[in-house]
């Protein structure tokens, strides 16, 4: 909080921004080879901020080639782990030094409230990179229990060239979640940011070079998903893709891999997350605070948003009135005003999608308890906190990921019914349960099919805990924690014969 500036100061920074608009490959900014560009728009005003290089297959190919060259030369992959750690920590310091500029750049391109960019996204980005940097020289490989006649070593080696394809909802933080462990493990990386939000990833790559991460190790190719994203997914020189985005596009990366070089694929996808509040939950004021935060934070454009409130009928009315009171405190408006909690919706397409779901909720018979009306103001597209009561499990708003500030309230009469309803979804990313009974807490947490279950709070854990999904919410791995580090490595067995009699050893 103390790090916040005034709206006037943020607007002054916005006016003075130097915008990175071209690809960053092999340590240099360069236009797309085909010369094409696309507009990036400020969702709060509708104004074009800049024309960004629209990279295509030949640009991706160059970035992968340079990443491979850097990897083979060993300038990063074989750099001593202590030196890699120091370079990554220098990057963290540069991010901190440039945090106001990065926060404003993120806000004007995505519509996110500056309050969140400054107090969540920037500190979390630094923390993530620092955490993985610190792990670089503290991870040991294994010696296997293989007897006196052999020495079995299990060693981690970097994968090679890793492609990171990320969404627009946390543009900088999602890049950090990927490149932190990927670079710490010694890989070369090519990032494809979402087309709505390219600039902070480009600036980050520039800062990485300044921090001493060698040219070619971190490259950024902005562009469309179908062109730049697909080219990366299909490239035979890419060893792994780490993707965050929709399940629909995640599936495509599995196909790209199957049809090219069987590159490793890790997917973090969507969610329709339940918040289960049992009848013995304590302190409903605090519960209401968590419920509101979980669904309205980042305008609900959050894969771990608890967009389904599953509440016991005995306490439903009391809890709902408290949630509505909290939700009314969430101010929606101009993103560079630090007193606003919700900013602009990232794009017309996303705005129309959320409005469509709100209309469907009304048509299918859910009751609007709050909000429900889109706001178009000063060229910006806004949706204030919206709460639907009386939602039933078959309604579309109870089933589809809306990715907007829309809460669906559903009522149950028992713990079993709550668990069944929580699991009645194709997703399984995150869930929260509120109860004062410790046995119930454990039982429900184990029964819910989700990668993260929080008890008596909303959250995603922290950098020490793996984050990812069951069912259609994920595939192949986890972000965060040392599990993330491991997934950017190949595992190699080295078997050394120590026996006196080589024939005996061979027969074994
Ligand atoms: P998206 O799937 O449309 O786009 C994600 C990325 O994929 C973008 O960079 C995009 O350009 C690229 N892409 C799009 N089409 C492509 C194609 N045909 N081939 C290759 N690449 C392509 O997702 P989005 O709209 O940017 O983000 C919203 C989604 O992301 C939601 O479903 C949300 O739940 C999910 N998400 C998940 C997590 C998580 O950790 N599980 C975190 C944030 C967002």
What does this entry look like structurally?
- This protein has two domains: 7-269, Aldehyde Dehydrogenase, Chain A, domain 1, CATH 3.40.605; 274-455, 3-Layer(aba) Sandwich (Aldehyde Dehydrogenase, Chain A, domain 2), CATH 3.40.309.
- 40% of the residues lie in helices and 21% in strands.
- Helix 3 (81-97) packs across helix 7 and helix 10 packs across helix 11 (316-328).
- It is globular and about 75 Å long.
- It starts with 6 loop residues before the first helix and ends with a helix.
- The structure holds nicotinamide-adenine-dinucleotide.
- Nicotinamide-adenine-dinucleotide binds at residues 165-169, 192, 194-195, 225-226, 229-230, 233, 244-246, 249, 252, 268-271, 303, 401, 403, 429, 469.
Q: How would you concisely characterize the structure shown here?
A:
By secondary structure, the protein is an alpha/beta fold. Helices cover 40% and strands 21% of the residues.
Main features:
single chain; 508 residues; alpha/beta; Aldehyde Dehydrogenase, Chain A, domain 1; Aldehyde Dehydrogenase, Chain A, domain 2; 7-stranded mixed β-sheet; 6-stranded mixed β-sheet; 17 helices; globular; binds nicotinamide-adenine-dinucleotide
How many domains comprise the coordinates?
2
> Whole-number average pLDDT?
97
The number of helices is: 17
Specify the structural class. alpha/beta
Kindly identify the CATH topology of the largest domain.
Aldehyde Dehydrogenase, Chain A, domain 1
Task: Summarize the amount of helix as a percent range.
Answer: 40-55%
Architecture of the largest domain, CATH level 2?
A: 3-Layer(aba) Sandwich
Q: Give the tally of β-strands.
A: 24
The set of bound ligands, ions and cofactors reads: nicotinamide-adenine-dinucleotide
Strand content: 15-25%
Low-pLDDT runs of 5+ residues are none
- Read across the widest sheet, the strand sequence of neighbours is 14-17-18-13-12-20-21
The rounded distance between the terminal residues' Cα atoms is 64 Å
What's the CATH class label of the largest domain?
Answer: Alpha Beta
Cα shape: globular
CATH homologous superfamily descriptor of the largest domain: Aldehyde Dehydrogenase, Chain A, domain 1
| Computed CA radius of gyration, to the nearest angstrom | 24 Å
Largest beta-sheet details: 7 strands, mixed
């Amino acid at each position: 909080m103390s790090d916040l500036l005034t709206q006037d100061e943020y607007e002054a920074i916005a006016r003075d921004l130097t915008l990175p608009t071209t690809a960053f490959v092999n340590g240099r900014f360069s236009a797309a080879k085909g010369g094409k560009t696309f507009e990036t728009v400020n969702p709060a005003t509708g104004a074009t901020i800049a024309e960004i290089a629209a990279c295509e297959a030949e640009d991706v190919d160059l970035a992968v080639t340079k990443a491979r060259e850097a990897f083979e030369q060993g300038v990063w992959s074989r750099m001593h782990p202590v030196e890699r750690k120091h370079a990554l920590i220098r990057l963290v310091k540069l991010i901190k030094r440039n945090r106001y500029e990065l926060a404003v750049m993120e806000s004007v391109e995505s519509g996110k409230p500056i309050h969140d960019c400054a107090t969540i996204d920037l500190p979390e980005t630094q923390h993530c990179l620092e955490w993985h940097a610190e792990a670089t020289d503290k991870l040991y490989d294994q010696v296997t229990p293989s007897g006196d006649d052999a020495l079995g070593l299990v060693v981690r080696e970097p994968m090679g060239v890793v492609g990171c394809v990320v969404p627009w909802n946390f543009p900088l933080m999602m890049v950090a979640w990927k490149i932190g462990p990927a670079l710490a493990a010694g890989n070369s990386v090519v990032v494809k940011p979402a087309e709505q939000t390219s600039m902070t990833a480009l600036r980050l790559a520039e800062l990485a070079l300044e921090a001493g991460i060698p040219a070619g190790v971190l490259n950024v190719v902005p562009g469309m998903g179908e062109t730049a994203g697909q080219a990366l997914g299909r490239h035979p020189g890419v060893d792994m893709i780490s993707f965050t985005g929709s399940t629909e596009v995640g599936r495509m990366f599995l196909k790209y891999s199957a049809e090219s070089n069987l590159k490793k694929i890790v997917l973090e996808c969507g969610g329709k997350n339940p918040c289960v509040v049992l009848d013995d939950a304590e302190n409903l004021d605090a519960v209401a605070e968590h419920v509101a935060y979980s669904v309205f934070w980042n305008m609900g454009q959050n894969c771990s948003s608890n967009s389904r409130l599953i509440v016991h009928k005995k306490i439903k009315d009391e809890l709902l009135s408290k949630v509505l009171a909290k939700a009314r405190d969430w101010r929606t408006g101009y993103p560079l005003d630090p007193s606003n909690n919700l900013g602009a919706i990232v794009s017309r397409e996303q705005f129309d999608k959320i409005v469509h779901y709100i209309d469907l909720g009304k048509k299918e018979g859910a009751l609007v308890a709050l909000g429900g009306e889109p706001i178009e103001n000063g060229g910006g597209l806004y949706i204030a906190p919206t709460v639907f009561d009386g939602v039933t499990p078959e309604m579309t708003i109870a089933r589809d990921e809306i990715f907007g500030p829309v809460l669906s309230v559903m009522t149950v009469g028992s713990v079993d019914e709550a668990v069944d309803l929580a699991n009645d979804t194709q997703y399984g990313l995150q869930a929260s349960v509120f109860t004062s009974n410790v046995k119930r807490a454990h039982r429900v947490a184990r029964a819910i099919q989700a990668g993260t279950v929080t008890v008596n709070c909303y959250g995603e854990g922290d950098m020490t805990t793996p984050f990812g999904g069951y069912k259609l919410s994920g595939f192949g791995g986890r972000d965060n924690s040392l599990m993330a580090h491991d997934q950017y490595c190949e595992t190699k067995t080295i078997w050394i014969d120590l026996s006196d009699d080589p024939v005996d050893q061979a027969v074994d």
